Amino acid sequence: MLAYLRKQMSSALEARAALKTDLEGIVKAAEDAGAEKLSADQQSAFDAKRAELRAKDEEIEQLDARIKDLEEDEQREQRAAQILAQHGQAGERRERVTVVSEPETYRKGGQVSYFRDLYRAQVAGNREATERLARNDREVQDHLQRIARGAEKALAGMEARALSTADGAGGEFVPPLWMINDYIELARGGRVVADQVRPMALPPGTDAISLPRVASGTATAEQTTQNTAVQDTDATTNSVTANVTTIAGKQVVSQQLLDQSPINMDQILLADLAADYAVKADAFVINNNATNKVGLLNVSGLNAVTYTDATPTTAELYPKVADGIQQIHTGRFLPGDKIFMHPRRWAWFTAALDTAGRPLVVPVANMPQNVLAAMGSVVSEGFVGTLQGLPVYVDPNIPVNLGAGTNEDRVIILRSTDVIFFEGTPQAEAFRETKADQLSVLLRFYNYAALHASRYPKSISVISGTGLITPTF
């Protein structure tokens, strides 16, 4: 993973350097022509390149943060391996007084099982299992505190989400640290939109998060005559509420599997539950539709842009994207910063050709001129390029069964910092009682979340209509 990220960083730095060269070239071309300012075409090209440069800087910052995190993890693992090699288990025990160099209690490839210890502590009262669980709890809380200290940096990119103790969380122990880390990694791959809005820790002790809002403001007016009353308009207020929801799953396993399996089932079951949770959390952010639990596509009062066409083309969709962008400018008075679409829609863009058979979406590295969009990395999920100066992210969790024909997807244009996604700490528990008569154990995984997508409805533009039916290639 680290090698892959370093390779991505190298490519991103090269692309950034190429963009800076392009910007300098545009300015130099104007200077060589003796012009005092850029022409309209040159200014348009300059603005597009500058937007690409900003997106590339953001990508580089995100990659740098992830590389640093992985390098720190790698250093801790190397230190732990050195201690074990030099001093054996006794050395490992002595080193535990220094937390930063202690290997995690539950780790991939380790000899102890989190689920097995959870069962033994809760059912049999095993002292050693209880101590290991308590030590794991401290390790996870220390890790989450370190994440919280970097929350401001996380807000600007896609770092590990700052988590905290969830509202009404039952049970004393939280999942292993390696599971928390894998959960974040899986979330980056499986929940693109959820990871691109503003992350916040879920406040404890509440089932609803209400935010006050100014509904209508004060006013001013010209005083046309001296010593007369000035404009007097009272502001009005209201609030928006996000209810806390629970996303949960369970798995029943046999007692024999926990006791006698040579493989720790934690790594299989927790990873699978966490991966599915990531998908469900992403779908919750995109398309949920319940009172005070409204996803992006169902926000009342958003900017609705309709594209209706039986034979849609990318050339016709292009101005609809511009309309969605300008409606955020006009209604929110601040710019949108991200575009989300289904992978099939971006593939449709990349397949578009001009009248001479040339692609309209080409790699940034080719220094394209007069293109519809610019292609970044070729990925199935995440950042893929830029369109009208905004970074484009593809997410397969965007529905493709919408509209009258149940075959439409949607394009979302968003000011992402206006949408807040609250999450707690994922919880895992084991119960024997309800399945004792069949010698089974019920394993339960859940987390709490809340979404504030309606703070500024005009921060969201959604393109819909028959022009977004299943594309043909």
Explain what this protein looks like in three dimensions.
The structure is a single chain. With 473 residues, the chain is an alpha+beta fold. It has a domain at 295-419 and 457-468: hypothetical protein PF0899 domain (hypothetical protein PF0899 fold, 2-Layer Sandwich). 42% of the residues lie in helices and 19% in strands. The chain contains eleven helices and 17 strands. Strands 7-17-13-8-12-11-10-9 form an eight-stranded mixed sheet. The radius of gyration is 26 Å and the shape is globular. The two termini are 33 Å apart. 34% of the residues are buried.
Estimated structural class: alpha+beta
- The name of the CATH topology of the domain at 295-419 and 457-468 is hypothetical protein PF0899 fold
Q: Work out the radius of gyration.
A: 26 Å
- Number of helices, where a helix is a run of at least 4 consecutive DSSP H or I residues: 11
Q: How many strands, which pairing sense, and closed or not: the largest β-sheet? A: 8 strands, mixed
Q: Level of helix content? A: 40-55%
Query: CATH top level of the domain at 295-419 and 457-468?
Result: Alpha Beta
Q: Would you count the extended β strands for me?
A: 17
For the largest sheet, list the strands in their spatial order: 7-17-13-8-12-11-10-9
What is the assigned CATH homologous superfamily of the domain at 295-419 and 457-468?
Answer: hypothetical protein PF0899 domain
Low-confidence runs of at least 5 consecutive residues: 88-101, 151-173, 183-188
The CATH architecture designation of the domain at 295-419 and 457-468 is: 2-Layer Sandwich
Report the β-strand fraction as a percent range: 15-25%
Output mean pLDDT: 80
